[in-house]
TrEMBL record:
Domain GFO/IDH/MocA-like oxidoreductase: residue ranges: 144-292
Keyword terms: NAD, Oxidoreductase
Pfam families associated with the record: GFO_IDH_MocA, GFO_IDH_MocA_C3
Domain Gfo/Idh/MocA-like oxidoreductase N-terminal: 5-126
Protein name per the record: Gfo/Idh/MocA family oxidoreductase
Domain of life the protein comes from: Bacteria
UniProt key word Membrane: no
Keyword field contains Oxidoreductase: yes
Signal sequence bounds: none
Classification via InterPro entries: Gfo/Idh/MocA-like_OxRdtase_N, Gfo/Idh/MocA_oxidrdct_glycsds, GFO_IDH_MocA-like_dom, NAD(P)-bd_dom_sf
Organism encoding this protein: Arthrobacter zhaoxinii
Amino acid sequence: MNKPLRVALVGHGFMGAAHSQAWRVAPRFFDLPLQPQMELLVGRDAERTQDAARKWGWAGSATGWREAVTREDIDVVDIVTPGASHAEIAIAALDAGKHVLCEKPLANTVEEARAMADAAARAQTRGVQAMVGFTYRRLPATTHARNLVASGAIGTVRQVRAVYLQDWLVDEDSPLTWRLQQDKAGSGVLGDLGAHAIDLAQYITGVPLAEVSGTLATLVHTRPVPDAEQRGTGLGGGAGAAGTRGPVTVDDVALFTGRFEDGVLGSFEASRMATGRKNAFRLEISGSLGAISFDLEDLNFLGFMDYTLPPDRQGFTRIMVTEPEHPYLSAWWPAGHSLGYEHGFVHQAKDFVEAIAAGTAPAPSFADGLQVQEVLDAVARSAAKSSVWLPVR
Ligand code: SOE
């Protein structure tokens, strides 16, 4: 039996379920160098946290995150709370010598993200690791896309198009959850879905964004305040308290263009108002020798176009990314059998455990998370200036 790696998870909403499943499943499918043990689940409400702990298989539960940070028998603190508490918990955990996995976006502000990256750098010198949860990097198709681009399969990257669309805010009476409150979530769709688009575009191209020009819109300005009992994902659904509406303080739609460090332009669109689009994250990268396209709603496939073929044979092919030769897949089902959304989280847990065991810095690091935060902040600052808007007449 490998040495145990004792995990505490802080938060038990939607991401709590995804991370719990990942910690449970990762050691069952992958031969890990350390054995994750699900020790402690932390939430605010004792009864609900206990119920969640029982349901997902955590050994114990607690109502204060400090228990996770101070307990000697905890090695990893996994943070899946709303962004407002990431910095405080992560810095305390790193300073206490715990490895930290933190959900995206890393923080609500650049200042918080910088303090977290500094704490992670300090911790690294003591062999303590920190990683931010940009989970979509860990899907076989996106990792394969990155490998293809790095191998030169599409030549020199010439253009990037990233679109991440959901529609759960189309209903004007969708409740005012934490995701719609700036003090809890930092920003709206920009930080929630835009952060994924930024990270994945930079990850697959291997080139950071250098400058951006953006615009944001809030289209429904008040929403029903949920009653205190409302639980769940923060994604709407469920009733708000009858009659009482409160202000939405974040963006519903975010659009921006970006210039990568090599001069390539990218267009980015993130929306919670895209009627009919449920979790439509599409990324297309055009190169001098070909192109790739990824679609989260069709995640077992990767679009690949070989521009070196004779014109009569050109076109996007759908690579079925389900073979043991593809990233992560040899641990799963026989060839041709597909994976889903949750597998990204399992692969994330696996990669994190391996980095901890090897004593190597995992990616995406908190420094990478800080850089994404800087891009988000630059988009918001650009949007606030509105300086590029010219009247048509
Ligand atoms: C909600 O918009 C959300 O759950 C995001 O917070 C996640 O990061 C994304 O994976 C799916 O959508």
